[in-house]
Amino acid sequence: MSDAVLQIEGLEIQFPGFAGAVHAVSGVDIEVGAGEIVGIVGESGSAKSVTAMSALRLLPKGAFDMPSGKITLLGKDLATITETEMNEMRGRDVAMIFQEPQTALNPTKKIGKQMIKVIELHTELKGKAAKDHALSLLRDMRINDAEEILDRYPFELSGGMRQRILIGMAFACSPRLLVADEPTTALDVTVQRQVLQLLHHKARQTGASVLFISHDLAVVNQFCDRVYVMYAGRVIESGKTADALGSPAHPYTQALIEALPEHAKKGEALSSIDGTVPNLVKPPTGCAFEARCTKSIEKCIQRPALKPIAADKRQVACWLKEAQNV
Amino acid sequence: MSFLNVVRRRLIFLVLVLLGVTLITFTISHLIPGDPARMIAGDRATPEIVAKIRDDLGLDRPLYEQYARYVTGIVQGDFGTSIRPRRPVLEDLRIFFPATLELALVALLVATSLGVPLGVASAVWKNKLIDQFVRVIAVTGISTPAFWLGLLVILLFYGQLGLLPSGGRIDPSMDVPATITGFLLVDSLLAGRFDAFASAFKHLILPAFTLGFVHLGVVARQVRAALLDELQQDYVRTARANGISSFRIVFTEALPNAMIPSITVLGLALGDLLYGAVLTETVFAWPGMGAYVVNSIQALDFPAVMGFTVVVSLAYVLINLAVDLIYMAVDPRIREVS
């Protein structure tokens, strides 16, 4: 536990709305160990991003309620530190990259200016030294004409190039944790692979932990050591990637993997999950997946807790599993 | 350099606009009933005298010929001779235009220096008390007639408090510094006349505030909307994730970008201020183009009215050119497209 870079315990987040509060996150526990690459996977609306944003305290102030939960980042309880302290940690100890590299950089400032600003803010490097550091970060991202790129504006560069720059920037101060929110979703597939490899390589090289958010099971499978599967604001399964996605225990995870196109046989319709994600203004009191689950039993109207089913933090929240284990 | 291309294109455009503007005003002013020659000659003049005047002014020639003569004149710097005071129009404009421009520029300064900070405060503390306050000010400014506000401030600051003069550009008992730029503030400094500067400044406060207040609301609302829009952008989130403080995000990241669309509003405001000054000038007895053009219209003084129109159109096009150039200077994306 003590070597955890990020620990989220019992997190609940609600967004007030006209129709009532949206219970976006209801009771999530996530832990990222030192040097670990941890994935959060789930479909849109499962609150993966909200969970990730809360790890940097990036959710807009006043726009949400957090009735319970404790977030510990590098041993610091985020509820107790000031905004100034949080700003010092952001960019230095913990960095984040986002889904849309197209818009994530200031459109009217040159790349160099934006990178150097962050470097000068968090390190002792100033002026020429900061510029040299920016150049080396870009070269690490396999950007050959780094010098020239520093002098360019974001709109002059491709999406893949911009995402590599953003990853380079995120590693500017060798953070202990990088939160990557769907970093390759907006990129085309060939660029995706390249960017992921660079990210993976850089993380392993610097020993940074990564919290990797994605809806793409294949990418998570390839990239992550451990994975949390989220559904409707809850973690429903977790474990080593090979276990959790290789032999999924929760009916939802099983259905997700079933639905991958590569599992389909030629000539058969693609498999999908019937029904829709539950309304989170009135979240189900029982298992969130109960209404769509083909294997639901009577007990599923109560909420199942996330319980260990094997070694290596292998956990699942499903009454079926509990019945089997008894 | 693309800057030069824009300037070149705009100058060609300018010529076309001026041709259009003069053609329209020329046609209208010669189609409306009324005989300038009769106005000059007076009631008791014989038809022979009227005919002579008409002949002197070329009013008996075909319209296209008169127009061609007029345009040729402008190109040579001759705006014709005004009918009423029988003086070259250019000479009058040279006196009255700087007075109006000085007032408009100071009013713009008032609108900007108050409007931008209010807009920023309003966006940063959205829906808080200060935002409500700024929104009330903005709506009040937009919906207050300038001449009425002018009367109110005269009543208060001149009538009740006796702090500021009620009208004119300078203390009537004071020697006016030699005209160099036509801007009294600048001319008195150039002449080293600080007493004249102080007096001119005092005379400017009320009309400039009155005129500026109306646009202050427009500027504040524009800056508020643009800044709120920028603060929603992804790059602001990136900046936050990089540990840049909220203060620096507003002032070094979002505000410069929010000012780009606001430049258009400021340019339009200056154009409006130029001819919107007419009523305000009347209230404050400001010796600018406003009073001049109103009197000229009543006297059917076509050369004077057209001179005014040409100058204001010219100013409009030049302001727009300036806005475009500023755009290019501050936004690399526009530079690229050009």
Tally of helical runs of chain B: 14
CATH class descriptor of the domain at 96-288 in chain B: Mainly Alpha
Rg of chain B (C-alpha, Å): 24 Å
- Fraction in helix of chain B: over 70%
Annotation keywords:
heterodimer, A: 326 residues, alpha/beta, eight-stranded mixed beta sheet, four-stranded antiparallel beta sheet, globular, B: 338 residues, mainly alpha, MetI-like fold, 14 helices, 78% helix
What does this structure look like?
The complex is a heterodimer of chains A (326) and B (338). Chain A has 326 residues and is an alpha/beta fold. Chain A is built from eleven helices and twelve strands. In chain A, the strands form two sheets. In chain A, strands 6-7-8-3-9-10-12-11 form an eight-stranded mixed beta sheet, with helices on both faces. A four-stranded antiparallel beta sheet of chain A has the order 2-1-4-5, covered by helices on one side. In chain A, helix 3 packs across helix 4. Chain A is globular, with a radius of gyration of 21 Å. The two termini of chain A are 28 Å apart. Chain B has a domain of 193 residues: MetI-like fold (Orthogonal Bundle). Chain B is built from 14 helices and no strands. In chain B, helix 1 packs antiparallel against helix 13, helix 5 crosses helix 9 and helix 12 packs antiparallel against helix 13. The radius of gyration of chain B is 24 Å and the shape is globular. Chain B starts with a helix and ends with a helix. The model of chain B has no long low-confidence stretch (mean pLDDT 86). The chains are: A alpha/beta (326), B mainly alpha (338). Chains A and B meet through helix 2 and helix 3 of A and helix 10, helix 11 and helix 14 of B.
